[in-house]
Amino acid sequence: PHGKPYKGEVLVEESLFVWGEQGIGEEVMFCYFFEELNKRVLDVTVALDPRLIPYFSDRFPSWTFLNRHRVVEELPVKDYCAPTGDLFRYLGLPAINGELTFAQPLLAPRKERAKQIRDFLGVKTKPRIGISWRGGKGVHGKIRSMELDQMMSGVAPEKDLEIISFQYTEGHEEEVISHGDRRVAISGLDNFTDLDGVFALMASCDAVITVDNAVAHFAGALGVPVMVVVPAGQTQFRWKNDVIRRLFFPSAQLFSQEPIGDWRSAVKCAWDAALDTFFRLERDEETPS
């Protein structure tokens, strides 16, 4: 892109172009810096995954938002430019040091869709847990993914639960049907494109158990308790570093493989923590104020 590299400066007259260049999960994380960026720069153009634009265009009405997948041939000409990852590079340390604060949660489901989902689900009488077991492509995606059977190994088959699949990769519906556990429900949404519905449904869950994928970032950004299950030795910095995890995703807990390649212990601990969240909330509701 045209323009000088942006390094966190205050820009009064100059324009800035920011673009997402990683997966949608990373985009969500770096969007935390938009609030600070809005204080430093008046003229901002952002190229984002189009599924995220509705959640930020209302919040920053003076900004220009573009579909990141359609700006390759005609990049905006601006005075400064930066990939969203550079916002972490130059603003991350002040945030870690407590000089910047983030409004939590970053995301919220739209009220009308949230009500529609709540009305459809009805009164919740047992724990409602969201799950996702695969994410990413290539070698790294394979390492951090598991089978649905492995995800479900951490909870007793007689446990009375509502379990909702937020898996979004090709063939996930067939996996749920083939698995045969009637507690596991397909969301009924297009989990890849209908983020409005996904966010509303996810916000209705007591907790989400997931591998390191977009679902983990969504749940964390929504403030939903999320148990992130990761492979040994492959933990990304946002989960591995306790300070960063608490800063961006304070509702997230990390559960790592032990030993390498064995998901059983991590998955069992994640399920225990997710169910404890439900029963802890129940106890809090029963306690007189």
Explain the overall architecture:
It is a single chain. The chain is an alpha/beta fold and 289 residues long. 39% of the residues lie in helices and 19% in strands. It is built from 13 helices and eleven strands. The protein has helices spanning 24-30, 34-40, 53-57, 84-96, 111-121, 138-143, 148-152, 172-179, 195-203, 214-222, 237-240, 242-248, 264-286; strands at 4-5, 11-19, 41-48, 64-67, 80-83, 128-132, 162-165, 184-186, 207-211, 226-230, 252-256. The strands form two sheets. The chain has a six-stranded parallel beta sheet, with helices on both faces. Strands 1-5-2-3-4 form a five-stranded parallel beta sheet. β7, α8 (172-179) and β8 (184-186) form a beta-alpha-beta unit. α1 (24-30) packs parallel to α10 (214-222) and α5 packs across α9 (195-203). It is globular and about 65 Å long. The model has no long low-confidence stretch (mean pLDDT 93).
